[in-house]
Amino acid sequence: MRWTLDFEFVPFVISILILADFKTAKVLPMKSSKLFEHSIYMLIALELSELCISLCDNSRMWQYTGFQTFLHTLSHLLVFGFLFNLYLYLRCLSSEDMGKFYYLKPYDLILFFAAGFVLILNLFTGIIFRMTILGYERGPLFYSIFYPMILVGLAFCAVTVISARDYIDKRVRGSIYLALSFIAVTSFFQTYVDNQRHVLSLGFAVALAIIYLTYENTARTVESKTGNYNGNGYRRYMNELILSQESFKTFFIQIENYSSVLSIYGREKTDNLLKQLGKEFNSVRSTSFYLHNGLFIVTDVDEKNYSVTESQIRGILSKERFLGSDQVFLNYYTATTDDSSQFETPQEMLSVAADTLRDPTYDKPPFENITAADVEKSAHKSKLTKAIYHALDHDGVMVYYQPIYDNSCDCIHSAEALSRLYDSELGIIFPDDFIPVFEQDGTILKFGRIMFEKVCRFIHDNDMTALGLDYIEVNLSPIQCMHPSLPDELISIADSYGVDMHYLNFEITETAALTSDQLSDLMNPLIKRGATFSVDDFGTGYSNLIRVTTMPFKIIKIDKSILWDYFKTRDELVPSIYEIMNNRGFDLVTEGVETEDMHIWLKNQARCKYEQGYYYSKPISEEEFIKYLQNHSDTAA
Predict the structure, then answer these.
(1) Rounded Cα distance, 229 and 218, in Å
(2) What 3-state class would DSSP assign to 103?
(3) What is the dihedral of CA 287, 299, 347, 244, to 10 degrees?
(4) Would you list the DSSP string of 130-170?
């Protein structure tokens, strides 16, 4: 049997094209990428050996049995070498997607060593093939050893992918199965259909091309605007570094005024700025990423002599930036870490860095190392956030009530509904911890509906007159106030519980009252149904007395800071505020009342009608609140 040149050049050209694109592309410097590159070299070596075999078989001057035996042995060995390298690549790829680091195991070498042993044995026995004057002849065990070993190698590859099927992207997984199937078909064709053509190398080349286009393609890992690696690249690369416990140093650079630059200059010009920065970060000998919203990450892995230094990063950040003739001033937050043992995942490291950079109390110098305290603080925040959303979705919203005292009758006449969340591990979670989170992602709308339903259920289940309550105060978030459908939604919920809107007073913060132009449109439908409104935390925002007094508010709630400051400084302005509001006919509620002196001053001098604070009661649960009202009623009687 003599080999032909029919299928030699096509796979060789495919392999060279893949290699050329791979070497010029921005490929992640990862273990899997290096294994893929080795597979390309292995395939090119295989194709060159097969090309030499075909030339020798078709040239009389090269028909030397010993040399051809060497070439065929080398070719067969390269076949299994390619399969072995492909197997290692898929093991590494699967481990990456599963969040693990792949270490070579002894059993991974079984197939390759078995193939090598058989081919060496073949040199003395001819059980796989032998060379004669007629050319290449298959031995007696070729069909029972050689081809089955190829199938076993493909099976190893397939099982590796199947075991990680829940982690590998469906499209990538499908392309790998297609590539392995193509190898299986071409190996079958070369073995049983046409044994004079090297079609197996074509199967290898097409398989590599399929995998390259679907997984190793840089479009998956490179950010188009800046030319840096993207978030997917960051996850893959940093996961390998962390799991391998390799030492590395990472710089986090956040453009502090990114939102302002974007709003002033627009998307296109801002992208040009990012491109400038990205190009300069790429110029230093390191691995750089751009994730989103002005966040760059630069990583170096040479522990003994890091090639990227703080001074280099400072040099890039200190450069003047221009868009045309306009100079753009960029401000940066920066932090670094060189302790990989602090983190278990790339996402954890990114979360810690983001929390550190965005922390309003963060006052460390630029490029300060992220500390164990920063990691612990971020971990607590992450744990708290998970607990918050779990509580929201699993009936963990609780309503506490704080009584409001009426000086005109010396009795409790209403209460403010205050929210709490309950987590089985963290216990009670207070509004300061979860309201900003809900407002940031819009979940406040869902939370507001749950709170209002619980208040309506309380009113429905209890005799408000018997409890001595005129109404319950319900807080509305500024985010809620921006939605025109809010009045209809609140009315619908109240009607579903059969609750008269007279029993509801809606509190809106002073800031919301001053910023929402549609606030009157929101208030009027509810006022027509009998609800009332109050300004909450008056005195903490940018007070505009005229604006507040021209809107349909019935009650003004004076923030506790006003009262507390007065008892520290005796500022004469404070009594004037009470006088003005009383003269304009508002009902006043002062928050934060904690002592008898405060109560006496508010009742006798400030002429404040209502008081709320720990002097009367802290916020208490629904059951405790009902008992409190009953006890207070008995005492008054």
Answers:
(1) 9
(2) coil
(3) 90
(4) EEETTEEEE-TTIIIIIHHHHHHHHHHHHHHHHHTTTTS-H
pLDDT tens figures, 342-391: 888 888 888 888 888 777 666 667 788 888 888 888 888 889 999 999 99
Distance separating alpha carbons of residues 298 and 413, to the nearest angstrom: 61
User: Do the beta carbons of residue 556 and residue 532 sit within 8 Å?
Assistant: no
User: Which residues share a beta bridge with 300?
Assistant: 249
CB 112 within 8 A of CB 81: yes
Rounded CA gap, 374 and 568, in Å? 36
The closest alpha carbon to 111, from 80, 143, 141, 88, belongs to 80
Amino acid at 508: I
Q: What angle do CA 444, 447, 450 make, to 5 degrees?
A: 155
Type and span of the H or E element at 545: helix 545-549
417 closest CA partner among 384, 451, 460: 451
Residue 210 and residue 220: Cα distance in Å, rounded? 15
Quote the CA–CA distance of 121 and 106 in Å, as a whole number. Answer: 22
Q: Which helix (H) or strand (E) holds 398?
A: strand 397-406
Burial of 617-630, coded b for 16+ CB within 10 Å and e otherwise, reads bebbebeebbebbe
The secondary structure of residue 196, as a DSSP letter, is T
Identify whether the C-beta of residue 291 lies closer than 8 Å to the C-beta of residue 231.
yes
Mean pLDDT of the region 262-282: 91
CB 591 within 8 A of CB 562: no
At 322, which amino acid appears? F
User: Residue 13, Cβ neighbours under 10 Å: how many?
Assistant: 12
Query: Residues 420, 430: contact at Cβ < 8 Å?
Result: yes
Q: Is 76 helix (H, G, I), strand (E, B) or coil?
A: helix
Strand (E) or helix (H) holding 379:
helix 372-393
- pTM listed for this prediction: 0.70
Q: Which tens digits make up the pLDDT trace of 112-137?
A: 888 889 888 988 888 888 877 767 78
DSSP state of 107: G
Question: Counting runs of H as helices and runs of E as strands, what totals does the chain give?
Answer: 24, 18
Query: Which tokens sit at 617?
Result: 């009661």
Phi, psi of 314 (to 5 degrees): -60, -40
Separation CA 279–CA 274 (nearest Å) = 8
AA letter at 294:
G
How many angstroms separate the CA atoms of 111 and 127, rounded? 18
SS (H, E, C) 415-448: EEEEEEEEECCCEEECHHHHHHHHHHHCCHHHHH
Between CA 303 and CA 310, with CA 304 as vertex, the angle to 5 degrees is 70
- Give per-residue pLDDT as tens, 468-484: 999 999 999 888 888 88
d(Cα 277, Cα 300) in Å, to the nearest integer? Answer: 18
Q: How distant, in Å, are the alpha carbons of 173, 338, 356, 358, 600 from that of 230?
A: 22, 21, 21, 21, 64
